[in-house]
Amino acid sequence: MASRIITPWLRGGAALALSGLAACTIGPNFLPPAAPLTEASDYLDTGLPTRTPLPLLARTSAEEPAVAWWLAFRDPVLAALEERVAAQNLDVQTATARLFQSRAQLGTAAAAGLPTLNGQGSAYRQQFSKNGTIGLLSGSLGGVTGGTDPTAPLTNGFESYTLGFDASWELDLWGKVRRSVESAQAQADASAEQRRDALVSSQAELARDYVQLRGTQEQIRIDLANIKVNEQILDVVRIRQQRGLVTGLDTANAAQQVEAIKAQLPQLQQQEIQQINALSLLLGEPPLALSQELVSGRAIPPVPPRIPVGVPSTLVLRRPDIRRADANLHAAVAEIGVAEAQFFPSVTLSASPVVNAVDPGKIFRGSSLQYMNVGPSLSIPLFEGGRLKSNLVLQRARQQEAAIAYQKAVLQGWHDVVNALAALKGDEGRRGRLARQVADARQALALSRARYTQGVEIFTTVLQASQTVLQAETNLVQATAATSTDFVALSKALGGGWEATFPAGPTPPLDLSRVSIPPGDLTPVGAGASSN
Fold first, then answer.
1. Looking at the chain, which terminus has fewer C-beta neighbours within 10 angstroms, N or C?
2. How far is CA 31 from CA 37, 339, 411, 445, in A?
3. Inter-residue contact 504 to 83 (CB < 8 Å)
4. What is the pLDDT of residues 19-41, one digit of tens each?
């Protein structure tokens, strides 16, 4: 009998379910935006006439940039540090935690398209008072029932056992859930690109700090060498003074030059410590943790002789910030579909069948079945006070904002590459001239020292030549470091430093051991997560 009653409802529900499976998806479909870089042959070719030609650097090529661009420096210490960024940098770990959050939100959005099922069960004993209303009925009904007490089971106590479940399923007739899942997936993709962006930025920052550290150490070496040279000059001046060939003025000038150079060392040593600490922080290490690895000075990593930069049309595929902007735009378009679907009726299938018996041995019999609220329910939005329309306007405005942000990200990437190329070209030219100046200044110092020793030149010429050498060598070190830093900026602008699969490094991408959170508590969706 029960099956005869429930079967029509099940048939109706099955028909609605099938119609739900064949339902349409409301809202616009996302189409990848056309990048404004596709027509340019290189980064400096805008297609517009210019007063002077702007060719790329002679050492650049249209080949795709290398993923591990720092290997072009041929510095094993830098390469070893870069390999640790993905696993140890705290910004990357923060982005990884946010990626886990977005994946969990994706699982939540996907769960909305599935039925919900909640089990229930109860077992209790109940007894009515013999002096209450039920007890009074006993005397009134005694004569009618021939002396038997029909209320005795109630006043003597009885047990009740119930097992059942509540089930409900909102049919995704208009694609609201599908659009929500699409949006959540795009947001998860954006979080993944944000993590890649954090990796690229951290790798570039580490290389930049490393170059600056080597520049500071090179400056310390230059100052020590110049102190030695000027001490030798001071010795010569003192000997000439003892012989009565010069006055004490030359000795005082030579001595103050030595002390002036020595006065620069404390500040340079302070910079060295701060730069080592900056590298330590990038790798999530305490202050001076990398001292043993970095205290020994090395030459500034030189710019490689050949620089592959690719073509502008591939920039949107490599820069994580552009890819993140694309994913955010995708999510915004999907949210429009969610907002539009809210204007349409919603259909929910529900059922609450249970089995109930006072005898536990009879609870699984067919006669113990009872059910209620079995069938579909319809909800039609009639009046929302403008909430649905305002929400749709909001989502469309957010889509426009995301589209503008994407366009800006693409243009920003183009500007970054061109600016980095211009800086690299300018600093390389400056470095070449400074290198020639250093050679000429050293020769001038050697000649002035020889002429001063022979007594045919005044000491002021030697002093000026020594100061010129020190300043020229300082400028050369700064220009060399700036050139290498420009290469780092160019590599970052090109989006280098990540692969299609995020580098795991020597440890898992998300290491929560330091904050005492079991990694199992953040299991990604699809990797054995609970169905709840």
1. C
2. 17, 19, 19, 68
3. no
4. 444 457 888 888 888 766 655 56
CA distance 301 to 79: 11
Instruction: State the sign of the Cα–Cα–Cα–Cα dihedral 56, 59, 63, 67.
Output: negative
Can you tell me the distance from the alpha carbon of 185 to that of 202, in angstroms, rounded to the nearest whole number?
Answer: 26
Q: Which of 432, 525, 532, 528 is nearest to 483 (CA)?
A: 432
Check residue 173 and report its DSSP letter. Answer: S
Q: What is the pLDDT of residues 57-81, one digit of tens each?
A: 667 887 888 888 999 999 999 999 9
Model confidence at 438: pLDDT above 60: yes
Kindly indicate the confidence band of residue 439, based on its pLDDT and cuts at 50, 70 and 90: very high
The answer to whether 138 touches 149, Cβ cutoff 8 Å, is: yes
Rg of the chain's alpha carbons, rounded to an integer?
Answer: 39
pTM above 0.85, yes or no: no
| Residues β-bridged to residue 354 | 164, 370
| Rounded distance between C-alpha atoms, residue 324 and residue 317, angstroms | 11
Candidates 429, 416, 410; CA nearest to 489 is 416
Report the candidate in 336, 345, 339 with the shortest Cα–Cα distance to residue 19.
345
Looking up tokens 């003192």, which residue turns up? 238
E strand segments, 282-417:
307-308, 346-351, 354-357, 369-370, 375-379
**Alpha carbons 221 and 213: distance in angstroms, whole number:** 12
**Residue 10: in which H helix or E strand, if any?**
helix 2-21
Residue 385 or 335, more confident? 335
Q: What is the rounded distance in angstroms from the CA atom of residue 212 to the CA atom of residue 480?
A: 10
Cα–Cα distance for residue pair 60/52, rounded to 1 Å: 19
Tell me how far the alpha carbon of residue 55 is from its chain's centroid: 34
| Cα atoms in the Cβ-side hemisphere of radius 13 Å centred on 211 | 24
pLDDT in tens, 251-292: 898 898 899 989 989 999 999 999 999 999 999 999 989 998
Helices (H), 83-175: 85-88, 90-111, 133-142, 152-155
